Amino acid sequence: MLARFRPGDLVVYRKQKHSNHPGPRAREVAPEPHGELYTYLVEKFWVVAECRDENKLLLRTRRGKEHLIDAADHNLRRANIWERLFYRDRFPNLQQQREAKSSTESPELASR
């Protein structure tokens, strides 16, 4: 299953959330049995940063957060062509993140 993903691949992760007011991107909204909360799914648009041992993937968000997810997770899938086109602004750009990270790590090189 790990061979299915490579670094740089654009992926969609369906994350389950709970709140009393689901946002506009919420899908499959359902009330919880004994409360005022709702359970719903939100699609997250991430990129594969690394493929690690034991069938794990390091995924990166647009703002630089990292998540270690099992490659066999049923909520994880590759982005299709329409998602790549319509949601291109929601996917992180790994090259820009690497450049920003390298400039913050070595400020003496950035001043040259």
What labels would you give this structure?
38% strand, 6 strands, 20% helix, 112 residues
Short structural description:
This protein has 112 residues and is an alpha+beta fold. The chain has three helices and six strands; from the N terminus they run E-E-E-E-E-E-H-H-H.
Low-confidence stretches: none
Name the helix and strand elements from N-terminus to C-terminus, one letter apiece.
EEEEEEHHH
Q: What coarse outline follows from CA principal-axis ratios?
A: globular
Q: Report the C-alpha radius of gyration, rounded.
A: 17 Å
Q: How helix-rich are the residues, as a percent range?
A: 10-25%
Largest sheet: 6 strands, antiparallel
Number of strands: 6
Assess the beta-strand content as a share of residues.
Answer: 35-45%
Rounded to the nearest angstrom, the distance between the terminal CA atoms is 45 Å
Sheet/helix structural class: alpha+beta
The overall pLDDT average reads: 82
Number of discrete helical segments: 3
General description of the model:
This protein is of the alpha+beta class and 112 residues long. It is 20% helix and 38% strand. It has helices at residues 81-86, 94-105, 107-110, and strands at 10-19, 27-31, 38-52, 56-60, 66-70, 76-78. Strands 1, 2, 3, 4, 5 and 6 form a 6-stranded antiparallel beta sheet that branches. The protein starts with 9 loop residues before the first strand and ends with a helix.
